[in-house]
Amino acid sequence: MDWFNNRTFTLLVQNNLPTLFKKAEIESMKGGKIGMEVGILRERILISLLIKSFGVENVKFDFSSNDNSKDTQVFDDVLSIKTFMNNGYGGVKVFWASDNDSVKNVVEQYLPQNHFLISNIRWGSNRGGLYLINLETQIKLFKSLGVKNYLKINNGNNRGISIQTNVLKTLLSHEDTKKIIIDWEDPKLEYNVFERWIKEIK
Asked: Would you call 172 exposed, middle or buried from its count of C-beta atoms within 10 A (0-12, 13-18, 19+)?
């Protein structure tokens, strides 16, 4: 997992992620609110930064849609990409189930499967950043807490299962978790979301 400390990657993240993530927010915005699709755009941005840093031959991104826990692979490290804003630690989903009836079976069989690449966006500050949480750390904490204390299971719509707030905080602050500090200065862009598509029209 030493690739995370690669200087080229670190600088690309620090110099580009705030602007690219802001563009993703603007592209997904409707009626003044950021849409759900912003998560997919952020994921593509992070994968693009990995490809730019390490080459397309070292970054895999064509996993089956049936395996929603795998987002990309860098060298030998399989990653699940997550992003959240400000202090929204409780909204980070670890898996999606097709319906509420299947949740019980998925929860009973749950075990962390991949490293986490997590971005915590905090506009207007230099807190948060980009984190790499290794699989071993996740498994150790999961086994010590048990599934009910590790995952947040609601009484309503459970198709998106979140990790418990205190669990995520523990993982992010763990001594083995790697972090890239990012200055989340709001770039205040004037960005036309239609311009690039207009240029594509012949």
From this structure: middle
